[in-house]
Amino acid sequence: MLEGNPRFGIPRQTVPSGDLVSAVEGSLAEFLNGQISALSCVDPALGRFAGTTRDLVLAGGKRLRPTFAYWGWRGVVGPREPVEPVLPALAALELMHTFALVHDDVMDGSATRRGRPTAHRIFAGQHSDAGRLGDPERFGTTSAILVGDLCLVWADQLMARAALCTATLFAARAGYDRMRAEAIAGQYLDVLGEAAPGTWSLDRALLVARHKTASYTVQRPLQFGLTLAGPAEADVAAIDEAYNRYGLAVGEAFQLCDDLLGVYGDPVVTGKPAGDDLRTGKPTALLMLAHQLADPAQQAELARDSAETVDRRAEVIAETGAVAQVEALIQRRVAEGVEAIAGAPIHPEARAALTDLAVTATHRPT
Asked: What is the pLDDT of residue 363?
């Protein structure tokens, strides 16, 4: 067990060999429990609020963003460098991710996430159970927005605990800020697309995928990990370009896979209701392709908008051939990503891990 570094505030966290997810979650749990204690001292209600936030952060997920950042870092420093100094920065990406998920669920009006009630539903239920005045739904939405805001602040605080020199931390923070701005920009375009689907196109849907998902899931976390490595003898420019190409390709493939799961995924497996994208009219790449390929009769069925027609619209989308084309796009982008790192000057262990991740992150069961 590492004792930690009081100067930098490294969490007392053992990193099991080959178990990054456990290390990240342990770092998060230790940090969050400290935040809960601090807020509980102000008011017990704040402690309960922070506790619910902690539960949302630790409620599962594959921890892909810290994983990509970790291998981006390992690609430069090699297999022997201890991870503890950068672990807080890796874990901070999960807090940013929770911020994005909670706000996204509010905007989409989603009922479940990871097989559990979403934040706004949890707080609405707490409001009703306590017999408080006012509208439970409004209270739930307001509280969930605050949860997302708090996670974003906590992410900054946790990242500052990384035991890195000031110059490296500043450089990493610049990349992290860019990642946040791009994710928010992509989310706005996503919301705009739902409000004006007639102006959307396949190219614009892919633009949303690049900013909303590829950027902050794969591309920027990889480059964030590269920056965490600090000054290095490696060809940093070549590695950065390889990570950029890999991240865009695999990140887009990840979002295209998510588009398929949003229509055809099993809620027991995905943790989210199937058909939500069709109910909201989200102009995903899948739906844009279906409109391009549909004959007049299929176009008419796709245009019907009611709860009763969701299942039929899903069938029509498949009948147009759009599903097969999206699957082909996923395969092509995975191949592009693997090719991008094939000759990159990174450590072989990282290349093998990223090659495996390109496949496993984009071939999720339905």
From this structure: 78
